[in-house]
Amino acid sequence: MSPRSPEGPRLAQGREHVVATTDEIKPGAVKIVPIGRHGVGVYNVNGTYFAIANYCPHEGGPLCAGRPRGRTAVDPDAPGNAVMVRDLEFIYCPWHQWGFELATGTTAVKPEWSIRTYPVRVAGDEILVTALPTGGR
Amino acid sequence: MTTTQETRHPEPSTVRTPIRVVDSDVHPVPKAGELAQYIPEPFRSKYYLSHKKGDTIIYDAPDYAHAKAMRVDTFPDDGNFAGSDPNMALRQAIVEGGSDVCVLEPGFGTHYLPEMSQALCTGMNHWLANHWLDSANNWHERWRGSICVAIEDPPGAVREIEEWADHPYMAQILIRAEPRPAWGSPQYDPVWEAAVKHDITVACHLSRGRDDMMPMPPVGFPSYNHDFMVTYSLLAANQVMSLIFDGVFDRFPSLRIVLVEHAFSWILPLMWRMDAIYAACKSSMDIKRKPSEYVKQHIKFTTQPLDYPEDKTELTRALEWMEADKILLFSSDYPHWTYDDPRWLLKHLPVQMREAIMFKNGIETYKLPDTVPALDGKTMVF
Amino acid sequence: MSMVHSDGTSTPVIDASVHIHFRSNADFRGFLREPFASRGIPDVQMDWWSRPGGDHAEAAEDRDKGKDHPASDPDITGDWLFNQRKADIAVLHPMTRGVLPDRHLTSAVLAAHNEMMVSRWLDEGAYADRYRGTIRVNPEDITGALREIARWKDHPRVVQLGVPMQARELYGKPQFWPLWDAAAEAGLPVAVHLEGGTGIGLPPTPSGQPRSYEQYLGFSALNYLYHLMNMIAEGVFERTPNLKVVWADGASDFLTPFIWRMDTFGRPHLEQTPWAPRMPGDYLPGHVWFVQGSLDGPGDVGYAGEWLGFTGKDSMLMFGSSYPNWQLNDPAKLARSLTNEQRDRILWRNAAELYGIEIPAPAASR
To answer: Above 0.90 for ipTM, yes or no?
Structure first.
């Protein structure tokens, strides 16, 4: 059970912070770091790192306690006519299962519903997140 | 806070705080092995213990294999199901969520034998009384319970109501809408009679049975949880029409009904439709008043699930036209995945309606006190 | 002819739903060929839940002088609709004998009604140019339905197809897709209407049999919501973008709360129905219409016009008298708080656009 927001002092707004080492967050995993009021989830999606606000804009659920997975696409050749694609690239809120693309914080059905993402970069074996959100409501 | 079932529990605060949020729908669930002892014989051995236990899920909610149709963050660490731990529910639904008093509504399915459905209800009632409403688990005085009854077994239902009517923390009777025929049939009159005799509200929560008690629509089965759950409200709409057109409120003028988790904005066009039918067919009808009057005086609806358009001012207008402050009761549906957070819900209510919907209607419907012992750190909703 | 209002303006009127019948059983049998002419077929409108006192308006009973079935004579009916009630155009919808267990028999019965309608009402008579027609087809006999569509789709006065509301599978399911595809390709909307008469089916409410006519009346029209939500979730409007559906029993007011629910609940379910990738409400424009009946609407209240604007209902409603049914709708019953534009849309503009009906210029100007 993930905490709603992580313990420890808030990392200062507007600055870049080292939040983890690269081997701390394995592919498919998340670390929630103390940026912003509810924390930020740092995800490893197939070797690329993304950071997204741990707050669902719907009713305020703990977004990063959800299960990352792909999206469903129509495939007329597959049994049941559906397949999952782009595994682990999306996060779904553990409350009402609203899905968001980790890279962009958006969802295809209504691009105007988006949430805040944070710039991430890797330097050596350190993951750095800038505590300056982009996008979002 | 730590407590054991039998012995220690915290002392309630001597400071009392006003009830500002009555949550009309919270779902407690027995821990593994907790329920069987309370189901009466011969049903316990003949039907409950002798049959395989397992998941019967159809019309599955999103990501069901992982989330089990629950908020994923509500599962306790001991491996039991979401809603099985009164302390965790207290923390999440009341302290963090902000509800002051919660009406507990156990889930119970519909068995093909009415007597077995009733035996399951009997078990649920004893379990709830002993594991949530007892002094060890209700030391904070914020849980209220439901007297579960199988309406399809009217004599058994009356027996349950008589047994539990005077329990200090049982606040309502709980029935299901799936059994046939609809509630206006005189065969159910003994149940309404017992309810009004003790002046207890009768609530109905949606459920699932099998086949014609799925519920089965008249024109075919929906394909997905999506179209199934959306059209589910039509069962409640039909029950409302039966209660009114079949004269239940004329026979029982003090009967109160609550429809839980059936949505509510459909009652606005339904009141118009019933009134139009009444205006056109009055000469061949026996009911004494306009149908919409019966709705406003006898029927309430829970706010969860709140449905709304993109333009939320349309919801505001609809709430005004239906006189929502007369007919709505706040509910959260904790711990289900369709949970409505009270602070979120509040924002959607016109300011002048908030007190009625968030607590005044609830206090009146469930005969609650105005105050409860204070709890440290409890979220203030408004 | 058009309707002159108390404020001096005048509006054309298209009556989107007139229920026509054969004159008698003998008349009906005359349009059946063997072996179906010798089959057992229920009498017309032998409804289990019929209205006490009869299903027809008194005005209709009187008109046909008690000898023939109401709405069976094109001249008598036309005089009522166009001279007395001031409609300009009427869309005819044959009411048949029920959803019969033998789909072959049902298809033969429908074909007889279609032939009668075209030959007697659309092709000859004083009012032929004022009538438009609904071709009845049988969703349980897709091959036969396609044949019937091919036969009548190019008739200049045929404007839509008709299927019953009663079904044992919802209309979003794939067994019906060839029918919707053929309708869309022919450019014909599909009107769904409760089939009268006796036949096979499930009880009309989700709680089984109602105990009163009023409850039957109240609920049965609402069954369209099961069909519509299933069609949306099954992606019918995604795969057949030109399909148009008319819910001919009215109850359009319920669309608003139910599409609110469908949308609110929709986002989490997208991953289960990838063939319907858009928000459910986005599938309504251009796909959904309603006949507006006398039980619809909030009454003559100040907010009736505002309510009508919700969910774009003012582009969906088409006035229908349902003559000769007792619910006999009347344009005068429309709420006064509707704007002129809303009233025009309901009385003729939505139907004119949907069915491609040209209203003569003098009648259209105000």
So the answer is: yes
